[in-house]
Amino acid sequence: xxxxxxxxxxxxxxxxxxxxxxxxxxxxxxxxxxxxxxxxxxxxxxxxxxxxxxxxxxxxxxxxxxxxxxxxxxxxxxxxxxxxxxxxxxxxxxxxxxxxxxxxxxxxxxxxxxxxxxxxxxxxxxxxxxxxxxxxxxxxxxxxxxxxxxxxxxxxxxxxxxxxxxxxxxxxxxxxxxxxxxxxxxxxxxxxxxxxxxxxxxxxxxxxxxxxxxxxxxxxxxxxxxxxxxxxxxxxxxxxxxxxxxxxxxxxxxxxxxxxxxxxxxxxxxxxxxxxxxxxxxxxxxxxxxxxxxxxxxxxxxxxxxxxxxxxxxxxxxxxxxxxxxxxxxxxxxxxxxxxxxxxxxxxxxxxxxxxxxxxxxxxxxxxxxxxxxxxxxxxxxxxxxxxxxxxxxxxxxxxxxxxxxxxxxxxxxxxxxxxxxxxxxxxxxxxxxxxxxxxxxxxxxxxxxxxxxxxxxxxxxxxxxxxxxxxxxxxxxxxxxxxxxxxxxxxxxxxxx
Length: 498
Hints:
Elements: H1 11-15, H2 17-27, E1 33-34, H3 37-40, E2 57-59, H4 64-77, E3 80-84, E4 100-104, E5 111-115, E6 120-123, H5 129-136, E7 141-142, H6 155-161, H7 168-171, E8 178-184, E9 190-194, H8 206-209, E10 218-225, E11 227-228, E12 232-240, H9 243-255, E13 262-267, H10 268-278, E14 288-296, H11 298-314, E15 319-322, H12 326-337, H13 339-343, E16 349-352, E17 355-356, H14 362-376, E18 380-384, E19 390-391, E20 393-397, H15 404-421, H16 446-459, H17 477-481
Parallel strand pairs: 2-4, 3-4
Antiparallel strand pairs: 1-2, 5-6, 6-10, 7-11, 8-9, 8-10, 12-14, 12-15, 13-14, 13-18, 16-20, 17-19, 18-20
Helix pairs in contact: 9-11, 9-14, 14-15
């Protein structure tokens, strides 16, 4: 287990544990509170299992009133709260605190309303990503964002991390497909932001909520945009002799003004792992594999497939196949969707990184990553959303070998610094959590971080919601509110002070 600096536990909260469990049991009766060691074990970590910590207690509310009362009680008593969805987070965003209440939202699992005329659905946060599509597909609709974990990940977690997926290149991330939320603040206040209407007056608070990683409030309801399924969708499977050639093809496709429904890339280790796992017919002799999906009217799709094929051949592709049926298209995607578990079969452990770069930098970054792997003596399988430059390098290691976890983490940190260096950012869809928290200064200076913390202070002045995540040093709100006075003189004395 790797060392991780987290907020110092409050001994006073530990001393009151029995009372806290009792009070929570009154608010959420029946099986709504888990306090025994065996019951807490499944909640010790999220998808980043190298970081683990048993929570003080787990609470599973079923109503908005219960969420509000639990948060109000914790706010009054100064008890930290960590919201949790399905626990598939890959940044440690749902890592519990030893002195904190873990609030699981998975009993909020109902589809509340489907409004086909207005092309939206209202769901609770525990509904799975794929569950939304399943609820509307009988009328020819679907929910566009589709993370690889869509069969398990919850829409509440998607909102927290601003999740993407294969189709986010053309149809946007979660933030582009969420119209409104109901959210409970740390003091128990219930807010409703946005809704079915196209736009709302005032500040764009939805832009703050989506991607806020559980630091601002607990989402209890989500209104999402649903889309008509395209008339036609076909996929092109292209193999290359180098990752650089594949990366150049991605850049050339976008430069040509073509926006595919999805465009994903895998390198040789990932190709072999996925093929052994799924048997999708991937070319084993290719160093890089590109999957490009075109959707829309049949005539347009046929034309765009020819253009994509021409670009791929111009970059020296060694294998090119076009799906001739929807079943074949899904087979092409099956290996990509199962790539993460497939890689798990070829290595005892791996770290799944998440950084984003400008598309034109793909060939350069892939070459630099290969050199890094040689430096650290670790293998790296690359599986990523090539169209929007969102990289997912899978760093392979064995935690039972002394020092390998440390090397894997250092390798991952270097990749993320490289992303920032070439004009990208630390995350694309997994969030910052604890995994990238201490790398935030590589992208933001103290002033940037202080302004972000001020936003948190506006929603959570006591800083009880998910502390220890995102910010490498969380200043107290009173500290951030102080006015600097030099030699007894206020700056800009002509400005009225309140």
